[in-house]
């Protein structure tokens, strides 16, 4: 195992992007994610990951050659799943750009609510990724961002975006959605679906999209 999944393969444009089962990480990556979440990447040792996974240190190295490979595996798995889900949402929404904005924002919020730990690590530990891995992660992040920016551009071209600064508004929407991973708890009073619906309304307001109808 090299820890570099290309795609989570979990979402199709049939509504399955709204469904979340248990986190799809293999046990070693799950153990590393837990440790990185508690102590940070640089504060975690391979021995701690091994103990959390119930393996020996050589057992960890049998699957992943380094601590860096563990971080790469977590980050790539998170970005692959997020992209799969968001692409499925955008495709299901169809040609209408406002519907695509709604769907992409909903998908972003649902992912960052359900997959908070992996999303947080993928975002906060980008500084800990080495050269090529960091470049690949940034490219994956940019590909993901284009799903929203393309929808916003199409809506603006159709005269449906009222703000004079659509790109700045789009970045604000992205930031508020990804920040969900920092504070949201699944055992809290607000269900992910309720939060997503609220954030869709926030996004439409930021973009000044009038007459879009209920989310």
Automatic annotation (TrEMBL):
Pfam families: TetR_C_24, TetR_N. GO terms for molecular function: DNA-binding transcription factor activity; transcription cis-regulatory region binding. Residues 45-64 bind DNA. InterPro entries: Homeodomain-like_sf (IPR009057), HTH-type_TetR-like_transc_reg (IPR050109), HTH_TetR (IPR001647), KstR2_TetR_C (IPR041490), Tet_transcr_reg_TetR-rel_C_sf (IPR036271). Coiled coil: none annotated. PANTHER family: HTH-TYPE TRANSCRIPTIONAL REGULATOR RUTR, TRANSCRIPTIONAL REPRESSOR MCE3R. This is HTH-type transcriptional repressor KstR2. The gene is kstR2_7.
């Amino acid at each position: 195992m090299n820890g570099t999944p290309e795609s989570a393969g979990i979402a199709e444009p049939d509504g399955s992007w709204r469904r979340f089962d248990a986190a799809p990480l293999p046990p070693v990556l799950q153990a590393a994610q837990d440790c990185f979440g508690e102590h940070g990447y640089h504060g975690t040792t391979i021995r701690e990951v091994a103990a959390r996974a119930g393996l020996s240190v050589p057992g960890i190295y049998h699957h992943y050659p380094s601590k860096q490979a563990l971080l790469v595996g977590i980050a790539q798995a998170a970005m692959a799943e997020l992209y799969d889900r968001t692409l499925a949402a955008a495709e299901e929404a169809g040609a209408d750009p406002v519907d695509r904005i709604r769907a992409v924002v909903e998908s972003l919020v649902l992912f960052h609510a359900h997959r908070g730990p992996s999303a947080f690590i993928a975002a906060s530990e980008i500084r800990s990724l080495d050269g090529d891995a960091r470049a690949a992660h940034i490219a994956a992040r940019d590909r993901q961002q284009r799903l929203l920016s393309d929808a916003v551009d199409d809506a603006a071209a159709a005269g449906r975006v009222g703000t004079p600064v659509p790109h700045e508004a789009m970045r604000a929407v992205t930031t508020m959605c990804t920040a969900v991973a920092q504070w949201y708890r699944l055992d809290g009073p607000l269900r992910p679906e309720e939060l997503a619906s609220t954030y869709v309304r926030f996004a439409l307001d930021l973009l000044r999209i009038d007459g879009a109808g209920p989310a």
